[in-house]
Amino acid sequence: MDRLTINNIHKHYEDAPLLTGVNLSIQSGEILCLLGRSGSGKSTLLRIIAGLERAEQGDVIWNDQNLEGVPAHLRHFGMMFQDYALFPHRNVAENVAFGLEMQSISPNEVTTLVSEALTKVNMAGFARRSIAELSGGEQQRVALARALAAKPRLLMLDEPLAALDRSLRLELQKELSDHLHEAGIPVLYVTHDQEEAIALGDCMAILSEGKIVQCGKPRQIFETPANRLVAEFLGMKNFLQGRVVSIEPAEVSTLLGNYKVDRIGHDVTPDSSVTLVISTENCSKIDNQSAQNAIQGRVITCDFRRDGFLITMVTAADSTFEFLIKEEVQIGSLITVHIPPESIRVLNE
Amino acid sequence: MTNRLKQKNPQGIVKHLLWLIPLGFLAVFFFLPLGRILQVMISREGIVSTSVILKTLGFTLFQAGLSTLLTVLLGMPAAYLFSHFRFPGKRILRLLVTLPFILPTVVVAAGFNALLGSRGWLNLLMVNLFDLAAPPITFLNTLGAILAAHVFYNTSIFIRIVGTAWSELDVDVGEAGAMLGASPVQVLFKVTLPLLKPSILASGLLVFLFDFTSFAVILLLGGPTFATLETEIYTQALSMLNLRMAGILSVIQLGCTLLIMVTYSRYNARRSPALKPGKGISPVRPEGNPRLFFVTLSVFFLVLFFLTPLLSLIIRSFISYESTSGISQFSIRNYVGLFTNLRQSYFYVPPVQAALNSFGFAGFTAVMSLLLGVSMAYAQTGLPMIKKWIDGLIMLPLGTSAVILGLGFLITFNRPPFDPGSFPWLIPIAHTLIAFPFVLRSVSPVLQAIPRNLKDAATVLGANSWQVWWQVEAPIVSRAALVGGLYAFAISLGEFGATSFLTRPTLPTLPVAIYRYLALPGDLNYGQAMAMATLLLLLCALSMAIIERIPLPGRKDY
Q1: Looking at beta carbons, which residues of chain B come within 8 Å of A52?
Q2: Of A173, B105, B163, B231, which has the fewest beta carbons less than 10 angstroms from its beta carbon?
Q3: What is the DSSP letter of A130?
Q4: Claim to verify: residue A141 and residue A202 sit in the same structural domain
């Protein structure tokens, strides 16, 4: 079982801190999706692991070996670049053969391995094609074949689907997942697309403000975001500050009233400050203005969606909320929306 | 069909007619003289020596090959330096290494002469310091002098082409190689150099072409010992009056240059194998001892190699030397002498008059080149189907050596009122043939890059076709035309090959005057040659500085 460990990586970009103590660990057979906004330092972290850039502080450790000073070409790590970085002066087969040639494998064996690699990604008939003749999806397959044919100890993928259109991206996601799992090596997959991370990753790590702010199974992260930053990054809206009234039954008091919630984490005590994240979905418009677990506000937008109407409303306390409700409402009307306790998550502050 | 065309696009007819201007010009001033050379070669009597032809061709190929090899050897590290590193003074150094591209060959020759010639300041210094009887450095009239000047002259082209290609290489591609296990050396040989190969070959061939057709450098620095096809044509035509032999040599020369140009075009077309514009290389500050050492050493060598001859020229122009007394001192005597007729001779033309002649010819060349180049650029937009063929036709004069043009003019326009003696405008007409492709190359891409919807937007906003041209096209094209015009002006200022055939004693240009003064004995003549070369250098540097400051769409820095 191989393991890559990253300890306390620091790096500046143009005199501003980019990575400020990144810690991460990944083992064989695991696909770790590194999620972060553009410019958060995801690609820089990959380049540091690859040995293409040096960290100012911190260690990259493969099993027990510290890779400090080991050049990129001797790390035996594979990398798939965002724009694939296929060699334009070599055809498809020659591209795939490159890594094998670097390992001084005999030409006959190279031919066999290239053929196998191309067959695996359904590109067997494209061996003699020029790279310029390939579509985006075909280039992606060749880049994957090239990266995997060299049998790397670890594979890193830097937003490999970002250059493709949505339908092709969805089509290739499954294919990519199968190939990556089949390889059985640790895989570090960088993306800014949460849907892609959920679909592909065994684990997810969220990089924000230079640090890994949360790492875990995708479901676990979505159900219990570590803080408001993570929740916002995962696309959650409707935040409400509050104070814990009681743990059992779980209840939180806010400016808009008291709310019963499904559960409160065990590290929270009564009277501690928390943030409620209210799901946009599973809420309904009600007529009873004094009902519990409800928010009252004036509708400022109402847009049709496939599953109902997405409304934005402003409360008396001047906070804005978004809900998906079944029926259309008048803009400017005052409405009450009921929120079931299971639609409220509690974030510890 | 014609009616339909008229109704559909009345400007199309004008565009077709625009072809007539450059084609007519080429027919009279290029193809006719070329035909005359062929005719003379066949019909005239004269001694034809196969051994002279073979020896001359052999030496031409040898010196061009060796010069190209040395240029590549110096150009590769320099291209790497400019494309990969940031360092203080980079912009100035880049201007310095680019400057020779536009410098007249006589200035380069004078620069090396001023540095290492028998009357150059290094020899003067050593003679004075060590009280020597004769100059200790023998540089002029050696193969080394030819090679040094060629490398000096052409490295800028190599750096420009290969440096730009190198800086545009997708960094990810090299890094992908490293990630697949290739060491830096393997990345260089298996990824970088194969990707740069078309650029290296294209620029190498261009350099070879320039070395092959070099004239003034061989004449001024090689001396009578070395003869290339160019200098031999000159000698056979003007000294031995053997026009048949000159014609034969011209045809051989033309055949060789055409072959080189065709090969160059093939490699040039393959210069961009990259799939899409990659990230390109961002130059970084050199970090770590090996890189710092490389950058420091390269900058030092480039400054030494490119600055010393030019600086020597300027310094030497301010040194007044008396060989009889052996005294040398700083003075402006050489410059003052440019304005006075010291010899009191009727036929003597003061250097300042030569400068005025040069300005007049250069202005005429710029106007003519703009007329031909811009009309051709517009005509090209109307006939994209035959653009490729006409493009080749237009570029022919560029591949034809100036000496052949001069010879062609000399034997074609040999009767008054159109002979060189009575019609001095033949000189700028010859210059126009050399310079107008530069205008075309400058204007055509800009014209073709103007988005169609820009003109459409002006039209729907109520502009008629003239207003569209005046308000939209003209402001965009005018900058490119200005660049082309300045190139034409600078080319004409420094042109020597064709001019040396067509000039008459009373109407010299600056380069011709420099050549004459360098060949004359006497310290003041030498000093005045240096002063004139310095003025020419400054004029060309000024043109270059203006060209560099004019922003053009698509111009990329390396």
Answers
A1: 175, 178-179
A2: A173
A3: B
A4: yes
Encoded tokens for B102: 């536009």
> In a 3-state reduction of DSSP, which class is residue A212?
strand
User: Which residues 142-201 on chain A approach chain B with CB closer than 8 angstroms?
Assistant: 146-147, 150
Omega of the bond leading into B551 within 30 degrees of 0 (cis): no
| Judgement on whether residues A29 and A47 belong to the same structural domain of the protein | yes
**Alpha carbons B484 and B369: distance in angstroms, whole number:** 8
Instruction: Output the CA–CA distances (angstroms, integers) from residue B300 to A75, B104, B174, B293, B372, in the order listed.
Output: 37, 25, 28, 11, 43
Sheet with A16-27, edge to edge strand ranges: A16-27, A3-13, A57-62, A65-66
Is the domain of A216 the same as that of A256?
no
Given a contact cutoff of 8 angstroms between Cβ atoms, the answer to whether A157 and A188 are in contact is yes
Instruction: State the residue for tokens 């031409």.
Output: B60
Q: Is B377 helix (H, G, I), strand (E, B) or coil?
A: helix
Instruction: Read off the pLDDT of residues B155-192 as tens digits, 9 standing for 90 and up.
Output: 988 888 888 888 888 888 889 999 999 998 999 999 99
Question: What are the beta bridge partners of residue A275?
Answer: A241, A347
B201: contact with A, CB 8 A cutoff: no
What ipTM score was computed for the predicted complex, to two decimals?
A: 0.75
CB spacing of A88 vs B274 below 8 angstroms: yes
**Closest residue in A to B277 (Cα–Cα):** A83
Task: For residue range B500-544, list pLDDT tens digits in order.
Answer: 888 887 788 888 888 888 777 777 778 888 888 888 888 888 887
Nearest CB to A79; choose among B170, B179, B274: B179
Q: Taking CA atoms, what residue in B is nearest to A135? A: B275
Out of B172, B190, B194, closest to residue A85 by CB: B172
Give the CATH number of the domain where residue A20 resides: 3.40.50.300
Q: Do B179 and A52 touch (CB under 8 A)?
A: yes
**One domain, residues A57 and A109:** yes
Contact assignment for A85 to B176 by CB distance below 8 Å: yes
Q: How close, in Å, is residue A191 to chain B by CA atoms?
A: 18
Alpha-carbon gap: B100 to the closest alpha carbon of chain A (Å) = 33
Chain A: give the shortest CA distance to residue B83, in Å: 19
pLDDT computed for residue B324 by the predictor: 63
Structural domain range at position A111 = 3-230
- Work out how many domains chain A is built from and give that number: 2
- Whether the CB of A98 is below 8 Å from some CB of chain B: the reply is yes
φ/ψ (deg, to 5) at A318: 70, 20
**Domain boundary pick from A203, A230, A257:** A230
A212 and A247 assigned to the same domain: no
User: Three-class SS string for B520-549?
Assistant: CCCHHHHHHHHHHHHHHHHHHHHHHHHHHH
For residue range B433-478, what is the model confidence (pLDDT) as tens digits? 888 888 888 888 888 777 777 777 777 777 777 887 887 788 888 8
Are A89 and A176 found together in one domain? yes
Cβ separation of B181 and A146 shorter than 8 Å? Answer: no
Return the residue of B nearest to A104 by Cα.
B181
Q: Which amino acid is residue B317, in one-letter code?
A: S
Buried-exposed string B120-150: b where 16+ CB fall within 10 A, e elsewhere = bbbbbeebeeeeeeebeeebbbbbebbbbbb
Contacting B residues, span 156-185, partner chain A, CB-CB under 8 Å: 170, 172-173, 175-184
Distance, in Å, from the CA atom of A262 to the CA atom of A343, rounded to the nearest integer, reads 8
Contact residues, chain A, for B276 at CB < 8 Å: 83
CA-wise closest residue to B406 among B539, B536, B512, B258: B512
B188 in contact with A at a CB cutoff of 8 Å?
Answer: no
Q: Find the closest chain B residue to A146 by CA distance.
A: B180
Q: Reply yes or no: is the peptide bond before residue B417 cis, omega within 30 of 0.
A: yes
> Residue B343 and residue B267: Cα distance in Å, rounded?
54
Contact of B328 with B126, CB cutoff 8 Å: no
